[in-house]
Amino acid sequence: MKTTSTFPLPTLLLLLLSLGELRLAMTSSVLISPFTVRESGVYIVTMVSDPDGPEQAEVVLLINGQQTKFRAYGTDRVIGGLSVAIPLNAGDKVGADASGVPAGNSGLRINIGFVGYDKNFYRTFHCDGGAITNSYGHHYASFNEQYTKTRLWSDVTAYTTTSRYFFDVPKNGLYWVMARPDPPGGGWTSFDIGGRQFQAYSRHGMPTSASAALYLTSQTKLDMELLGTSSMEGATMLSYVYLEGNTPEYLGRSVFHMAFTSSVNKHARMYNADEKVLFSRDANLNMGDLYDSKTGVFSISINGTYIISLRGHPKSGGTLNLSLHRNVHAVFDSISARGASSGQAAVFDWLAGDKLYVNVALGNRNVGPNTMISIALLWKTGAKRERA
């Protein structure tokens, strides 16, 4: 089935840029060597800043050498992140500027990868003391059928010890993993895939999140380690999207049918709990007229599986808790604290006629201009699952 869109979107769908943990001793700007986009399309970009020290660590996405508004802020050992859907053109050079990472006091690991319907190309940069080395891995597949699974760690019973939870990857394939440790109390958790491939930490009892696109095998174990708390119940959420291909029928034909990315236009003070957060009409991406900037409501017109990322950034200290509502029920939240930007992402099945909006659930009601939302339709749902 061939679909159409208001934006020319050939093959590539996902760009991953994640910043994790590796000590740096830097005194000047660190520019991550850019890669060149081979095909025009809408990409999902994920960035995570995870500083080791108390200063704020800012990482900026670069496109053709120019700084963009897409930034991740980590601070006070609290992970900050961002996931957004943005259009990129063939020939664009995409990199990152880590000059906002304090010298000798922060961690930085940068992974850049592609997910396409004919090829997944995964590239990893390791920065150590300002030196950059590369390692490459190629994974080939054609994707035809997609499905979603969501689990709470309290449901996983196959591999359980006093402080660690495990479960096996069911089959070989390309996974986009979103993890959110949220331990009760003041403890912290870490989440590993296949022995340190991907990490998400929660510190000081503050829920944080990270996401990554990884090619996993059926021998890989997903591993959650819990330290300093007494119960996993309700503590952590793991969502993942698994992409599997059987035939090349859809190669080069899959596009985003609906997608929206925008930030708060300016600093906003929210006075009422039911007051909706208004995102700018001057959106970075607006396909399918999802959003009404006057009412602050997203209107779903197609049954389907959607990915949503919600990033809060408090204007001044404190905690900012943004809550996404589906119709009248809260279904998703994103918590930011101490100047860090969250970056919570998840996958949901929504129905035509659903209304979505964001409000400030509690805490600091000073919503900073770096608060951002991104929604994209991954695929339609119905009697037969179809690509969006």
From TrEMBL:
Give the originating organism: Littorina saxatilis
What protein name is recorded for this chain?
A: C1q domain-containing protein
Q: Where is the C1q domain?
A: 259-363
Keywords tagged on the record: Signal
Record-linked Pfam families: C1q
Residues of the signal peptide: 1-27
Answer yes or no on keyword Signal: yes
Mind giving the lineage of the organism this protein is from?
Eukaryota, Metazoa, Spiralia, Lophotrochozoa, Mollusca
